[in-house]
Design goal:
2 domains, alpha+beta, 15 strands, D-amino Acid Aminotransferase, Chain A, domain 1, 9-stranded mixed β-sheet, D-amino Acid Aminotransferase, Chain A, domain 2
């Protein structure tokens, strides 16, 4: 396999030649923000929305956007064109750049570091869609600005590892008796045929896939309520789904080793999964 080409600070180069200084604040503090953009048949999915969320994250950490959307699209387009896969996951990050010494306060002159790479998009195996996945739960012990897509993901990594240690796919998070999200996904519940979506707040990431799911529900007439979902409701739901750019939508069929609903992917999930695949197919045809 060829070494993939990446973008670093204005230049395209093989990944194994890309170097970041150790004084980069992304390395020292996790002081940066990122996006993960799925690409189907070399077409970035929801690029405008991802770039809009990136701008929101940059605003929240008080870092100027180094590029216009047009320039982002050009650089991303080249990374996508040069990659060897048709379906890709494009990762981009912007950090607050390199300082002369380690200092929590922002440098006086900030030159952000910008990195873009592409990996093969590994959509979930068919068995995960048809049989569902197992999840564990944990207390959401992250900070209070989970709406920022920050590169400082230590809490998310520790929480995801709980799932991996238990042989599961995702960790479902609860804070103060409410469902928030997964360690790296949005979570939905279904009760009596109604899709329950935790409302956006500073405690969850505004998911791009979350918005797609709500749009598809609206388009196809599925009843949706956007509101706080309690832990008790989530545990007693008929269906629980996770959604993210890399996993699309997947049914959670066990939580902490106990069956969720019927313990099988539910009928509302199967509908949504069909709508999602149809929607992607339309996109791939260029419509
Ligand atoms: N994560 N919530 C969290 C905490 C996430 O990390 C993600 C995605 C989502 C779903 O957002 P979206 O639909 O825009 O992908 C929700 C990405 C995939 C990641 O960190 O790799």
């Amino acid at each position: 396999m060829n070494v993939p080409r990446v973008f670093l600070n204005g230049e395209f180069m093989p990944a194994d030649e890309a170097r970041v200084p150790v004084m980069d604040r992304g390395f020292l503090f996790g002081d940066g923000v990122y996006e993960v953009i799925p690409v189907y048949s070399r077409r970035p999915f929801r690029l405008v929305e991802h770039l809009r969320r990136l701008q929101g994250s940059l605003n929240a950490i008080r870092l100027d956007n180094p590029y216009t959307d047009e320039i982002w699209a050009t650089h991303i387009g080249r990374i996508v064109a040069e990659a060897e896969w048709d379906d890709q996951s494009v990762y981009l990050q912007v950090t607050r750049g390199t300082d002369t010494k380690r200092n929590h306060a922002f440098p006086k002159v900030v030159v952000p570091s910008v990195f873009i790479m592409s990996e093969a998009l590994s959509t979930p195996p068919a068995a995960q869609r048809s049989e569902g996945i197992a999840a564990v739960s944990a207390v959401d012990n992250r900070w209070l600005r989970c709406d920022i897509k920050a590169t400082s993901l230590l809490a998310n990594c520790l929480l995801r590892q709980l799932a991996v240690d238990a042989g599961c796919v995702e960790t479902v998070l609860f804070r103060d008796g409410l469902l928030t999200e997964g360690s790296a996904s949005s979570i939905f519940a279904v009760k009596d045929g109604v899709l329950l979506a935790p409302q956006k707040s500073h405690l969850i990431l505004p998911g791009i896939t979350y918005d797609v799911v709500l749009e598809l529900a609206a388009r196809h007439g599925l009843a949706v309520v956007v509101r706080d979902v309690t832990e008790i409701e989530a545990r007693g739901a008929d269906e629980l789904w996770l959604a993210s750019s890399t996993k699309e939508v997947l049914p959670i069929v066990t939580l902490d080793g106990r069956p969720l609903g019927s313990g099988r992917p539910g009928p509302v999930y199967r509908q949504m999964a069909d709508w999602y695949q149809q929607f992607k197919a339309t996109l791939m045809r260029g419509a």
